[in-house]
Structures are given as structure tokens and as C-alpha cells.
Specification:
Two copies of one chain form a homodimer. Chain A is mainly alpha-helical. Chain A has one domain: Globins (Globin-like, Orthogonal Bundle), CATH 1.10.490.10. Helices cover 58% and strands 0% of the residues of chain A. In chain A, helix 6 crosses helix 9 and helix 8 packs antiparallel against helix 9. Chain A starts with 19 loop residues before the first helix and ends in a 10-residue tail after the last helix. Chains A and B meet through helix 1, helix 7, helix 8 and helix 9 of A and helix 1, helix 7, helix 8 and helix 9 of B.
């Protein structure tokens, strides 16, 4: 399935500022280990049939906050852009699969930086030809990790896994999202400071 | 008790880029509510007699990672700076108290931005007259939230509170740390992008 604008594996993406060794130190800091890789991969088949329901929750959250929905809306009329929302939603679903796959190779690192550019003024809107705000303000990027990981809980628990297993999957998601949001922040930060 | 370099409440600190209204939207995004304020305040008396033990764990973690300890060490000799470590440690202990106090007024916002400057090249080392690296790289700031909040768990549980109460305190700490790390990131990000 080809999802418009999904470029994981595209060799034409610019190189990542963070190479495999640097990412290894970030994983160490986040206490992210092989058990987290296993827990993420375990979550994949559990989440797969629920992806649209997860996206309903996440889109419902963004849609309920005008100061977030604004970044999917026309900058002057304030009218939400249905096509922009739909195209991002398809990629957001794929992001669930990609996060659960837990493959941290060079392609994945390049793709994280591309996701970051699409939140920042260097790249927002361009992929989808959207007319919207120039940038998602940095102040919201990291706090958004909380609703993403918190609302995932019932979906991770839906197949009746033991509480310890659900905890492990949610912890792994939390760490992965922290690491990803850090990489997505790159365009907001001077390279020498990153 | 006066802790050298602790400036919460100092009216001479520069104004925060984030005012009370902007911080309210950040709290909304992080799902941080009155229940979290209550849970943080409940954690204060539990953690107070354990602060040195918590700091032992956190310093043990930083000390075990050469690429983190480097930011408390001489930039060429690599020798850890005991005085710098000790002065930061005293403020780190007070940070536990301040986080548990959960008072988000203008003084607190100003102080968060000052904490951020002390990680970035605009202000690192100056408070303590230390000779060390110029900056804590952005890539580690957010991942550090994980060990901080994860290792707090047994300390929050030490007085035998119910699991639900410990969960609530840990969740509140997690959200508070996410919000604080966001504010600390400010010197790393252009004001228009923040």
C-alpha cells in the first residue's frame, strides 16, 4: 500500500544529523533496550485491527483543541482543511505500524528528520500542498507525547494481555515517542546545539 | 535554607516567553489537571525524607554514562568537577521540592527559563563558575525525562500508598517533567518557533 507522502525508505531523503552511534546513546539515556523492541513488536498485531479507532481518539483530541486544530486549518479563515487532515491521518496510521516495527536503521533515522521538517516552517504543508499555519509551535510537540501514549492504553489492553505485558508495551511506546519527538525537534534547534 | 544559585522568586530573572495563558494551553495538551496538582503535592512529604537517596540514584545514572558525566567535567582533561556536581546537586534536591509544590505562577515560569539557560550555551557553567562543556546537547534533554520519572517509582511507593495513588503521583510527575523540559528547551529554539 502506497501512502501519499510516506517516505520511510526513500533514499532521496537528506541524511540524518543523528547516526546510529548517536542514536544508541539516546536510547541508553531513555533506558530503551531490547525488551522495549520486543514489547513494541508485540503491540503491532494488537494495534493493527484498531488503528482507525486509535486515530479517531487522537484526531478527536486535536479536534477538541482549537489551538491545535488551527495547524490543520486555513491561516486566515480558520476553516479546517479536510484533505490535509485526511492525508496526514493515513500517514499517522502508518506511523503506528512503523513505531511498532521498531527498526532503527538509517532509513528510519532519515524519515524521523523528515517528519520533524513537516512540523517546522522549513517543511510544513509542502507535502500535501496545504494552505495552513507556517509551523506547529515547539511548545506543543513534547506535551503531545502524553495524550498519545496515555490514550493508547485501552487499545494495548484490548486483547486481554496480562497487566505486566500491557505495562511493558505502554512503557516501550512512551520511550519510543520520547526518542522520536526528540528527533522531530531537530529543525527547531541549531545543529551545533542538537 | 539558601541554596546557591537557586533563583525561584528572584524578580531580577528575565520574563518568561510563556505567560500563564500559554502555559495553560500546554497543560491542556499534556492532560495535566487539578488531580495532577494534588498528586504532586501528595508526593512532596513522601519524597522529602528520601531526597538524598533519589539524588544518589539520579547521580549514579549520570555518573555511569561518560557522555552525560562529560557535562559536569573539564572539557579537555575530562576530570569531573566535584564542586560543580555538588552545587547542582543541592539545586536538584530543591527541584524535587519545587516540582512537588506544583505552583505555576510567573516566578516559577521565569525560573524554568533560567534552568533552560543553564543547560544551553547562553548560561551553562556561569552560575557555578565551572569550567566544563559549553552546552548539554538537546538530544539528551527529553530522553532524560524517562530515567527521572521511572526511577522515582519505588520512592513514591515507599510509604505503602495504594498502587492507584502511586500511579497517580508518577503520572503527575511524568506530565510535570514533560512540561518543564519543554520550557527548559526554550533557549535551544528560536523564539518565533517556540
Amino acid at each position: 500500500m502506497q501512502i501519499p507522502g510516506h517516505r520511510l525508505g526513500d533514499p532521496e531523503l537528506p541524511r540524518s544529523l543523528i547516526d546510529a552511534d548517536a542514536f544508541a546513546t539516546m536510547k541508553e539515556v531513555a533506558l530503551f533496550g531490547d525488551d522495549d523492541v520486543a514489547a513494541l513488536r508485540r503491540s503491532g498485531p494488537i494495534l493493527e485491527p484498531q488503528i482507525e479507532a486509535v486515530l479517531d481518539v487522537w484526531y478527536g483530541f486535536v479536534g477538541s483543541k482549537p489551538f491545535l486544530l488551527a495547524h490543520f486549518a486555513h491561516p486566515t479563515s480558520g476553516e479546517p482543511n479536510g484533505e490535509y487532515l485526511a492525508r496526514v491521518r493515513a500517514r499517522f496510521g502508518q506511523w503506528i505500524r512503523d513505531t511498532a516495527a521498531a527498526r532503527y536503521d538509517d532509513d528510519w533515522l532519515r524519515w524521523q528528520f523528515e517528519i520533524g521538517r513537516r512540523h517546522h516552517r522549513v517543511g510544513k504543508n509542502a507535502t500535501d500542498g496545504a494552505t495552513s499555519t507556517a509551523i506547529v509551535p515547539f511548545r506543543y510537540l513534547l506535551p503531545l507525547a502524553q495524550p498519545i501514549v496515555q490514550t493508547l492504553r485501552p487499545f494495548l489492553a484490548a486483547t486481554g494481555e496480562r497487566v505486566e505485558t500491557v505495562d511493558a508495551m505502554q512503557d516501550a511506546w512512551r520511550k519510543s515517542v520520547l526518542l522520536q519527538v526528540t528527533l522531530w525537534s531537530s529543525p527547531y534547534v541549531a545543529p551545533d546545539d542538537f
